[in-house]
């Protein structure tokens, strides 16, 4: 499959790779997907409780090039946005920006889910806990 | 020697036509352009001569006689002709066929079609090493069984089935034995007598010949196998496969078989050495890598490795100057990971991380070293990017035991 230049660029130079301290109460963590499906995304955001602005965002992704690019792009887009603005990001925006073909749409859906999951985790920590739209997977330590 | 990019390590998909094969074919596009069925002039005769020599060359490679070689358009057709041809011809005798789960789609989908037409098919499972269990085979045989069809070697994992043992069982029970020999012929010794094979599918483009031509070996005695043709017409190929012969292609198939016969021993030893160097180079530098399928019963030029925590398609993208293929769902149209790896009991999480390396005649040691370095550096980079690797290594989570909420 031929990848768009933007996908290749994000794949070769992924933005904001890494992790934030998930115990920090200003950090929201979204972990979506499953290894059996071939894709897992972890998206973390550090959110200012006063301004509700996302000050930092980091990701790690197990998945195809389009999934890596979608999550890399998501970190770029959410930075500097308020929580409400970030929640307005749609997977179709990602599809358009990265010119993803139809078979890769689910990779962008995963990125949207990851944004929502991270924010809902943060809200829970901040005591705003609405029922989570998409919950993060829970590690079963065993 | 500097390596020339891109590097081709996908020799199970197809092989480069050997220049000596091209040279053998060329006259049959030019001065020897005749129709091999034209019996009354020199143009026809020289074409027919080319075809008959090729038939003999194919036969010699597998220890058959020329009259037992039916030319086809490739192994997909050979598999169809063998299975459907036997099924139709021996319908009175029985309606049961035995195959196994890691066959190529040319066999599996043919069997599925026959099931719709009222035949019964048993799909034997494979063990963890990719081989069938002979006791399973014996148990599956019924008085209605007319055909056993098992591949010589698998196209993804290169695992070689116990063909001679299966041949013996088939003979004892008076059941025809068809073998899809595509990946093995010309790479390891395949002998229809020693292996007890009654029908054998061959494809030219997997053994350094041209695409769109192949053959089906059909045994003529002990026992004699008869087939119902799939393609009717001018009665070519003893009525088993009508249609004007693809003379240049057939000449290429023959020449390719001849080269394999002459060079196989030396070439296989060389490729096994390169393959082991690749395997040891990669696995020596990376932890949590797993070989899929038996190492003992394996084609010399194949290795299939899973790289835990790194998704296959993203790995292919990182080594885009190297042609290999992956069992990852993301590389398939159906978004399902490889059914072959699944059949071996490889977890879906690891199936997504698998890469097949298929070495061939034109690969060099320099290429092996280049590929080793590129794979190692790319896997390391992608593991840095992998949340699963982080969870496993830094947080000590057993990723496979997590409660993933799959949508
Ligand atoms: C095991 C096996 N059988 C059959 C085929 C089909 O061969 P052909 O391309 O000649 O139709 C292939 C090639 O993909 C194969 O690997
Ligand atoms: S993660 Fe599988 S196609 Fe993108």
Question: Can you put this structure into words, describing what you see?
Answer:
The complex is a heterodimer of chains A (142) and B (407). By secondary structure, chain A is of the alpha+beta class. Chain A has helices at residues 5-12, 65-78, 83-87, 91-98, 105-125, and strands spanning 27-34, 39-47, 54-62. Chain A has a 3-stranded antiparallel sheet with strand order 1-2-3. Chain A is globular and about 45 Å long. The model of chain A is unreliable at 138-142 (pLDDT under 50). With 407 residues, chain B is an alpha/beta fold. In chain B, the strands form 3 sheets. Chain B has a 7-stranded mixed sheet, with helices on both faces. Chain B has a 4-stranded antiparallel sheet with strand order 9-10-13-12, with helices on one face. Chain B has helices spanning 19-25, 42-62, 75-89, 105-116, 134-140, 163-173, 247-285, 312-318, 339-343, 348-351, 365-384, 387-393, and strands at 7-8, 69-72, 96-100, 120-124, 145-149, 176-180, 199-203, 214-218, 289-291, 302-307, 322-323, 325-326, 354-358. Chain B is built from 12 helices and 13 strands. The chains are: A alpha+beta (142), B alpha/beta (407). The interface between A and B is large, with 35 and 38 residues. Bound molecules: pyridoxal-5'-phosphate and FE2/S2 (inorganic) cluster. Residues 38-39, 63-64, 66-67, 104, 107 of chain A line the site of FE2/S2 (inorganic) cluster. The site of pyridoxal-5'-phosphate has 12 residues of chain B, from helix 3.
């Amino acid at each position: 499959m031929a990848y768009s230049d933007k996908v290749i660029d994000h794949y070769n130079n992924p933005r904001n790779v890494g992790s934030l301290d998930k115990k920090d109460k200003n950090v929201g963590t979204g972990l979506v997907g499953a290894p059996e499906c071939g894709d897992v995304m972890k998206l973390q955001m550090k959110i200012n409780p006063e301004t509700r602005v996302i000050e930092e965002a980091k990701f790690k992704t197990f998945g195809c090039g389009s999934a890596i690019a979608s999550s890399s792009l998501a970190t770029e887009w959410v930075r500097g946005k308020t929580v409400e603005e970030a929640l307005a990001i749609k997977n179709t925006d990602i599809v358009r920006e990265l010119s993803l073909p139809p078979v890769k749409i689910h990779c962008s859906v995963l990125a949207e889910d990851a944004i929502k999951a991270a924010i809902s985790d943060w809200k829970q920590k901040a005591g705003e806990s609405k029922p989570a739209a998409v919950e993060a997977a829970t590690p079963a330590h065993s | 020697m500097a390596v020339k990019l891109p590097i081709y390590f996908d020799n199970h998909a197809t092989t480069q036509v050997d220049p000596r094969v091209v040279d053998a074919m060329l006259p049959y596009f030019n001065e020897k352009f005749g129709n091999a069925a034209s019996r009354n002039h020199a143009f026809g005769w020289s074409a027919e001569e080319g075809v008959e020599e090729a038939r003999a060359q194919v036969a010699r490679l597998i220890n058959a006689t020329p009259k037992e070689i039916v030319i086809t358009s490739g192994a997909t057709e050979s598999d169809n002709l063998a299975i459907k041809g036997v099924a139709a011809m021996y319908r009175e005798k029985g309606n049961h066929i035995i195959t196994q789960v890691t066959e190529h789609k040319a066999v599996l989908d043919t069997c599925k079609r026959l099931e719709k037409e009222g035949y019964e098919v048993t799909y034997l499972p494979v063990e963890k090493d990719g081989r069938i269990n002979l006791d399973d085979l014996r148990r599956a045989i019924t008085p209605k069984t007319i055909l056993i069809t098992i591949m010589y070697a698998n196209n993804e994992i290169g695992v070689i089935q116990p063909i001679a043992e299966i041949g013996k069982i088939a003979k004892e029970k008076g059941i025809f034995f068809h073998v899809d020999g595509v990946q093995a012929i010309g790479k390891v010794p395949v002998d229809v007598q020693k292996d007890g094979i009654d029908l054998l599918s061959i494809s030219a483009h997997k053994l350094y010949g041209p695409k769109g031509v192949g053959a089906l070996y059909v045994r003529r005695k002990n026992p004699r196998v008869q087939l119902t043709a799939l393609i009717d017409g001018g009665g070519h190929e003893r009525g088993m496969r009508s249609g004007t012969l693809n003379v240049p292609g057939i000449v290429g198939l023959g020449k390719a078989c001849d080269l394999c016969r002459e060079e196989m021993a030396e070439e296989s030893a060389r490729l096994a050495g390169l393959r082991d160097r690749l395997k040891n180079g990669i696995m020596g530098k990376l932890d949590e890598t797993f070989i899929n399928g038996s190492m003992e019963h394996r084609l010399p030029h194949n290795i299939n490795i899973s790289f835990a925590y790194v998704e296959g398609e993203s790995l292919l993208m990182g080594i885009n100057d190297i042609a290999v293929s992956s069992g990852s769902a993301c590389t398939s149209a159906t978004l399902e990971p490889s059914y072959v790896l699944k059949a071996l009991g490889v977890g879906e999480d690891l199936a997504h991380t698998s890469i097949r390396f298929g070495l061939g005649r034109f690969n060099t040691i320099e290429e092996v070293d280049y590929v080793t370095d590129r794979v190692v550096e790319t896997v390391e980079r992608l593991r840095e990017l992998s949340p699963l690797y982080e969870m496993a290594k830094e947080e000590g989570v057993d990723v496979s035991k997590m409660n993933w909420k799959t949508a």
